[in-house]
Amino acid sequence: MAKELCTLENGTTCSSWNYSGMRLAAGSADGTLSVFDFRDPPSSSSIHSTFKFRVHEGNIVKIIWVPPEYGDAVACISADGILSLWEEVAEDSQPLQWKICKSFGSSSSKVLDVQFGISLTSLKMVAAYSDGHLRVYELLDRLELRNWQLQAEFQNVIESVSAFGKALCLTASISWNPQKGGSQESSFLIGFNSNTAELNSCKVWEFDQAHQRWIPVAELALPEDKGDQVYAVAWAPNIGRPYEIIAVATHKGLGIWHLGLNPDYNRRLPVERVALLSGHEGMVWQMEWDMSGMTLATTGHDGMVRLWQSNLNGVWHQQAALEPTC
Q1: The dihedral of CA 300, 302, 306, 310: what is its sign?
Q2: pLDDT for 295 beyond 80
Q3: Residue 93, pLDDT above cutoff 90
Q4: What pLDDT is stored for residue 160 in this prediction?
Q5: Average pLDDT of 44-55?
Q6: Is residue 22 within 8 Å of 6, Cβ to Cβ?
Q7: Are 129 and 106 in contact (CB under 8 A)?
Q8: CA 215 to CA 52: how far, in whole Å?
Q9: Is pLDDT above 60 for 164?
Q10: pTM for the predicted model, two decimal places
């Protein structure tokens, strides 16, 4: 039987769970960020401390935890498109407190989404902007979360000569390849919901170490679907499959894609859409895989949480649908 862990205040707009540290961060419409700590195992009486502080004057629309290897820190995106990084620190024998590390803003565009990825040498952060641009930042000192350097800036288009300066993007969704370690290069996928068809389709970007640049290695869209707005993307953990699994949500449904691991002579990776699932009525807001990469959870405009799996024959189906109780 499920237990209630905590009750979030009215006005809560977003939340993010830190699986490593058993912590929950929640943002509110008044710009307040709350951090809840849980003992192990969690229960309704296990909350042992709560931090609550103001990070912005307006609505917080998204919270993302920094990978735990780099400390206890979160990134917050506000409704006006400002991205700020906050870190929990202890100074001069004072109690733990949260302080701002860095703020990223632009006079011409808003930050729509941000995600962190661990590369071979450092922590990287990719941010998607309302003009269709992507900016990749690299942390120069793992002990200083304020010390970021812009590594690259480009738009989500296959042809490098293309540029769309008047693009207007409403939302964006980013997902890093969750694979860590080994000799694998950094890679992530990104899709936009915009008025510019060339920007929308979900593309996989990989860092070319030899030429020190990011290159598109796959496009997850059928020829007739390349202009469709993308609502959400999610890259599944890989526990030994000879291919990657990626979920892409558009107005046509939830697409499950296989991404091959062997590039062709142009460094492009083979792709195949193995399922197109329907169930949500309206837009899909968020998707997340379990740690094994075998179950996908989705939520959307219909207020339902749906769980998806494939059977032994590789046929995808809805395993469960959860409805809010209040």
Answers
A1: negative
A2: yes
A3: no
A4: 66
A5: 71
A6: no
A7: yes
A8: 41
A9: yes
A10: 0.91
Assigned token pair, 116: 């962190």
Distance CA 188, CA 218 (A): 11
301-323 tens-digit pLDDT: 888 999 999 998 889 999 999 88
Angle, CA of 17, 18 and 22, to the nearest 5°: 100
Contact yes or no for 84/56 (Cβ under 8 A): yes
CA 98 to chain centre: 23
Integer CA distances (angstroms), 229 to 23, 97, 126, 253, 271, in order: 33, 40, 20, 11, 19
Report the pLDDT value the prediction gives residue 252, as an integer from 0 to 100: 93
